[in-house]
Structures are given as structure tokens and as C-alpha cells.
Amino acid sequence: MTMYGQGILRGLTITLRHLVRTYFNDMRYMGKKYFNQSEFELRQGMKTEGIYTVQYPEEKIAVPERFRFTPFLVVEDADHPERPGEDWCTSCGICAKVCPPQCIWIVRGEDPVTKRPIPEPQAFYIDIDICMNCGYCAEFCPFDAIKMDHDYEMASYDRTTAHIHDKEKLSKPFSYWLNIAPTTANEEAEARGSWEHSDTVKSKKKAGVPSVAYTPTTDPSQVMQMIRATMPEPAPAAEAAPTAERSAAAVAQAGPSAEDALKAERLRKRQEALARKLSKEAGSQ
Amino acid sequence: MVIAAPQTVDVDVNAVIDKLKEKFPEAVKNDTRQGYKGVIVDKSKLVEVATSIRDEFGFDYLSSATGVDYLGIADEMEMVYHAYRTTGGPALVFKAQTPRDNPEIPSLIDVWPGVDFQEREVWDLYGIRFPGHPNLQRILLWEGFNGHPMRKDWKEAYFEEDHKPFESRWPAGHVHRIEEKNAYGHNVMYPADLDLSRLTDTSEESLYNSLGLGVDVQDLTGEGGIKTDRLVVNLGPHHPSTHGVFRMVVTLDGETIETLDPVMGYLHRNHEKIGERNSFLQNMPFTDRLDYISSMSNNLGYALAVEQLLALGARYQPPTYRAEVIRVLMAELTRIVNHLWSLGFLLNDLGAFFTPMLYANNEREKILDFFEATAGSRLMCNYMRFGGVFKDIPERIHSVVNMVNDKVRDYNTMDYLTEMINERLPRFMDEYERLLVNNEILKTRTVGVGVLPADRAIAYSTCGPLLRGSGVAYDIRRSDPYSIYPELDFDIPVGQNGDIYDRFMVRVYEIRESLRILKQILPRLERTKGEEVVSKFNYLGRVPIGESYGRVENPKGELGYYVVSAGDEKGPQNPWRYHIRAPSFINLTALGPMSKGYKVADVVTILGSIDIVLGETDR
């Protein structure tokens, strides 16, 4: 014979326990709750017993490496010794073909004089309203040139213009990719056998020049150093001339001021993030 | 709660087919097309043969009934039926063909009432008529829709090409938005006999006229001799209890329900037509969007269906053992995710607002974190591939500070999983059961409410916890096993009374059983470390000609994919037919009969106990 209402009372003790535990832990973590990295990890992990939320947008959980949002295009860093700012994309069109909602439009690059196709997209558009974030473009790209971004705060007031991303908006330096997904970037470089673009590796092999061998690292500047170290003293003239011409043409097309402003903006954001990270680390110790 | 006995799975379907041909020598013929299974039944004898299949041969469960349009191949339309025994075993596939002009196939609604919605869907999308169906109306589209969109010769407005990839994207690359071309109002066509005044008619009757309720709204309030107030009440489509955009039209006598008509299709996007246009591979992320709570198992079902076809070809590499282990890991975690969600929301429907749901979601988050680190997304996982998975599970669940995010976590994946499966989730389930199972309010509201007897549950082709709650121990993981389930040790919990409480308890026990499976998965994961799991299926991969029906025990019930590969000698890149047997959609067939005689407040709970997702219902 059980008393009516016993089940309800038992349930209420459980809700009470949850409440108490949450505040008990709050008091225990008093003062360091919102600053300490290891406490954050503990609270979000398996061992936690209370109920916690992340105070978005003041706190933002960093997303795991494989997280995929909209795609971006990998380009060489601005301080790349051989091909600064050059695309990794060769406009082979596989991403456009494999894309399930068909949100990628590419104009294949062609030489202005000979009209022959060159391995570089003339224009690259992604309609991020249509993009379903499936990650096929990144998965099937044979040149590791298109990757899924981690930046998910893309809301804007005008979707008609702001949500079709062009090449300028899509391009992000290789160091950014190495920064947001170090493990994956390392795996890919290992598969290529080098930190350089697979086409560069191929052409260097043809020319008998050694390319940058793969060494595990998560530091972009170290990659740059490695590339510089393997560069032969006089740059091969035949390679360098069209590259310089092309990038000069690209700058002339986009307008130098716009390009510079963009670069400065990217640099500023990166520096800010770095400063934030350093100050957090300093605060937690 | 009863634990079901093991099922017999070694049914010799060919022997059954031979006997069937003996009995109906004129009407039943083998399906001899390349890669096809089962028999073709003459449509004039279909009802007779179907009755015999059900009664004499014991195939009492009709899993799926769907149409295919073979324009350009045979100039015929076809109905494909998959019947199973509830005691286990493979399918008996039978088909009926009809010419494309004036297509007509007798309705099987008297043999299996579960074909009700499925036949309406085929009428809606293919225009095949079913004489004998009492209420043959459009179900997913509205009655003002012009044509039957799944027919191969039907093209939508601003149709671009038959198959993806579209030429315009590369190398020409002219960017456009479809809405620029699709100015509202310029591509709308109505059937000739549609009364357009209905569109502007806002009167009460016009709301219900199209439903075939058999009740005249005016009559109910008049002096027709009805003593109590009979009312027609409209629940939804925008109603929190319907778990999405779903409408129920309820006829009430006082507060007691007389009839209930589900109205759906508000989220219809013709997923199957999109699927025929996509390549086989491109469909994978689209399956995520069906039952968006359990995308991992959706992926698995589709991968199984296409792998069956690939196995017909010569150069097919089946998934490695580790890939299978990871698939089962994901599928069972998905089951826990889904059941936590559904238990929480059932309590919400009962009025226990948000406390049980948020407790459950707190645990669900932990699993989703693992999905996010492995597949890249929390809900739209897109993780399975044909012959493998997207990538091996990562060494660490780990994130990096970048421009927008600063709160970093870093766990060892195997430690994370081990602790979750061995300690955290069992501890949580103990607590959750203490919180709810003996709660008097919960019991009063659910015990004896929404009863569905076992024989009706089978007849209505219901599946999943709804079927097992009624005492039918039908679980595809046991009765028609796939992947590595045969070597795993687990039980199938079934209810006894077929009421809401039993469905609730079936879900609770299924979480426990899933945890039991996962405990056996962990050592297998450790053992197979380093094995290749990534599939070799190329983005241009071709699929051999044939048909296949891949089905999995999704958390919500049986999810089946009927895939036909045809039309290209070398094996096409795009499916000719891509049909989804959606558990939520077919389970809704039982909603009306189940609700009869209960009160309005119970309808919400009964619907909650079916556990529907509209992404899958409306497709």
C-alpha cells in the first residue's frame, strides 16, 4: 500500500537536488567561474552535476576542429615568399559539381591572350543562403583549397547582397586554416607530403627543386620559415615573372585601397583575437 | 514490461513465391528484370493475392507501398509493396503495373488499413487512382495543385535540368538567385476545375470542406435532432502541441472525440523529386533533413539501401568492421538522443513544462558535442558514406581559439565516451526514472489512454515504440538484422497494454538497451583502432541497375528507403526512384482510431506518444 503523492514528492526532491547542486557549485567556483579555463572545461564535461549554461554572447564555446559552417577558399598568406595571396583553387569545378544544393558558381580562369584555361578561378561565388553546410566541397576537393569555416555569426540586415559571397569575401589565408583546424591541416599536409600546394610540389619536382617536406607543426610562421628555407637563392625567373604579373593585375583590378583595407582588417582581427587569448591566459594563471 | 523472445529470421521467401505462383498461376509472375526482386501481380487479382499473402503465408505487416513511374523505360506505372512477417524474416516484394494513361490499381485498404495514407500519397504525387479507397484525396499537396509532381514528365516552374550538376554553375558561372526568376504569381497554375473563389472564402465551412469529414458544420448547430453540442475543433497548424506545422481537425461530442483527421503537408518540399534529381551521393545530406532529431540513423538507412545496389556490381568494397562499429555507435547514440527528446516533450505535452525536458536535453547536449566533434555538425551530421563513414572518430574532442570563439574544451574522445556510456547516462536514467516513472499525475494521464491493440497496430503498419508498446516484438535490428547487430547482445522491450504509458516505458527501456549495446561497442572500438573507415566511393560513382529497399530501426520506427537505379546501361549516377518510408508519416494513420473516445486534452498526449517529426512526415 503506497501513499498517493509519494511519486510526486520523490520527483520534487530530485528537482530540489538539481537546484542546490547548481548553486553549491556556483559558490564553490565563486570569483573564478567565468575566467578559469579548467573550471569551464569541468563544468561542460562529464563530471559536472549542476546545470550550467554558457553565457552567450559574452562567452562563446570554441567549436571543434571538424565543425563546418559555410565554405571559404584557402589562399596563400600575404607574406608567402613565392606566391603571396595566390589561390589554392585551380577551378577544376569538382566542388560545384558535387554540391548538393548547387550553391557554388565558378568562372573558370583563362589566359587573356591565349584564351586557354589557367588553374585559377576568375570568379567564385557561393550563395550561403542556399548552402546546406554538408561539407562535400571540402571533402572532395583534390587540392585542399576549399574548407569549411568556423565563423557562424553571419547574420546581416540585407540578404540580397550580403549573402552571395564572392571570391574576395571567401578567400582566407592558409595560416587561418592552420589556426582553426591544426590536426586536419597537418593530416592533409602529411598526405600531400609537403606544406605547399600540391601543384607547387609537382612543378618543383619537375624542375628538380626540393619542396618543403612535411614536419608536424601548428605554427603558421614556422611553415613560412620552412618554405623560405627551401627556396633557392635566385628565384626561378620563368616561374616568378607571370606570377608577379598576374598578382599585379589582380591588385589593379580590385583597386589597391580596397585590397589593403581588407588585409588590414584581417590583420587587426587576428591581432585582437591573439591579444584576447593572451590576456585570458594571463588572467587564469 | 516484457522482454520479447528472439525472432526467427530464416524465412525462405523463394519457397513462398513458388507456392504463391502455384496458387495463382495466371496472376503471379516472377519479376525478371535485372536486379529486381519479388513478383508482379496482375492488378485485377491484386486484392485476392494480397489477402492470401496476409492470411495464408503470414506476411501480416505491410511495411511500404509506393509508386514508380517508368516513363521512357516501360511506359508503365507500378505500385511496389513490401510485406513482412511480424515474427521476423525478409520481405515479400510484390508489384502491380498499370498503363500510364488512366492509371488505376485496386486499393488494398481492406487488407491492410495501413496503406491508407500511402495510397493517398501515391494518388497525390503520381495520379494513380485506387478504386475502393474511401477517401482518396491529396494528402501532402493542396487540392489546387496542378498535376502530379512525381511523374517523370512533370517539370516545376523555372525547371533547370533533369539531373545535377547543373551546367550553369561551372565553367560558365553566372550567379543568380532563384527568387529573382521566381517572382511570386508568375508561375502559379491551377487545375481547370478548381473553384478559385475558395481561395478568398474565409467562412468557417471552407476550412473543412476539402477534408471529406462527412459532417456538415452547419448541420451540427441546427435542429437536426442532435442533443449534445457537436463541434468541429481545429487544432493547429500553428500549435505548440503539434511539434511542428501539423493540423488536426477534431469532431467532438461534448468533449469526447468522435473523429480526428490529420492534415499535413505544410512542410512538404517534394524531397523525393529533389532526390531523383540529385546524384546518389548528393542525397546523403538531404536525408539529414528528414527526421532532423536523428540524422545519423537516417544516413545509415540510405547508405544501406545504396550499398545493397552497389553490392550487385563487381567493384564494391563493403564497409570495414570498424566502420560498422562506428555506425552502430552513432545509431545507438542517436536513439538515446531521440528518446531523451521525445520523453522530455511528452512530459511537456502533459503540462510538466520544461523541467523534465531540460534535464533530458542536458544529457543530449553531451552526445551532440561528440557528434559535432566527429561529424562536424550537431544535428545535420551527414556522416555515413557508401561503404564507410566520413572520417574516423577524432582522437580528442578539442577546439581552438579563433576570432569569434574563446571558450575552449579538450577531452580525450574514448575517455569521454566511456565515462558517458558507463557512468553518466546510466546515472541520469536512474534519476530520470525516479523523477517520472511513479509520478501519479503522469500515470493518471497516460495509463489506459490512447490504447492501440496489437492486431490494430500491425494492421495500421505502425512501427517503432508505438508498435512495441502494443506488445508486438517487432524490431528490425532483430527481425531483419543489418550491420553488426546479430553479434550484439540486447533485448527488445515491449509493452502489454498499448497505452501511452507503455510507449513511454518502451522508450525508457530502449535507452537502457542502447546503453547495453554501447557498452559492447566500446571494447570493439578499442580493438579496431587504426582500421580504415573512409569509403572509396568517388563523387562520380555509378550505381548498378536494380532496386533495393534498405531499412533501419530508426528511433521513431522503421525507416525504409526504396531506391531504384535505372535508365542508364552503365549504371546511373542519379536514382530513378528515391522513396522514403517515413515512420512518423505512417504512424499517423493510427492517430485517428487511437484518439476516438478520448478527450481533447488526451489528443495532445497521444500525438506526443507517437513522437512525430514533421520534416519526415511531410517530406
Give a verbal description of the structure.
The complex is a heterodimer of chains A (285) and B (619). Chain A is mainly alpha-helical. Helix content of chain A is 47%, strand content 11%. Chain A folds into two domains: 61 residues, no CATH class; 184 residues, Alpha-Beta Plaits. In chain A, the strands form two sheets. In chain A, strands 4-1-6 form a three-stranded mixed sheet. In chain A, strands 2-3-5 form a three-stranded antiparallel sheet. In chain A, helix 11 crosses helix 12. Chain A is elongated. Chain B is an alpha+beta fold. Chain B has two domains: 125 residues, Beta Polymerase, domain 2, CATH 3.30.460.80; 347 residues, Cytochrome-c3 Hydrogenase, chain B, CATH 1.10.645.10. Chain B has a five-stranded mixed sheet with strand order 2-3-6-5-4. In chain B, helix 10 runs antiparallel to helix 11 and helix 11 runs antiparallel to helix 12. The model of chain B has no long low-confidence stretch (mean pLDDT 85). At the A-B interface, helix 1, helix 2, helix 3, strand 2 and strand 3 of A face helix 9, helix 12, helix 13 and helix 14 of B.
- CATH fold group of the largest domain in chain A: Alpha-Beta Plaits
CATH class categorisation of the largest domain in chain B = Mainly Alpha
Strand order of the largest sheet of chain A: 4-1-6
Beta strands of chain A, count: 6
- Order of strands across the biggest sheet of chain B? 2-3-6-5-4
Number of domains of chain A: 2
Which fold name is given in CATH as the topology of the largest domain in chain B? Cytochrome-c3 Hydrogenase, chain B
- Give the overall pLDDT of chain B as a whole number: 85
> For the report, how would you describe the main beta sheet of chain B?
5 strands, mixed
Write down the oligomeric state. heterodimer
Distance between the termini of chain A: 59 Å
Work out the radius of gyration of chain A.
25 Å
Shape estimate of chain B: globular
Characterize the biggest β-sheet of chain A. Answer: 3 strands, mixed
So, CATH architecture of the largest domain in chain A? 2-Layer Sandwich
Largest interface: A-B, 75 and 69 residues
What is the level 1 CATH name of the largest domain in chain A?
Alpha Beta
Helix share bin of chain A: 40-55%
Low-confidence stretches of chain A: 235-244
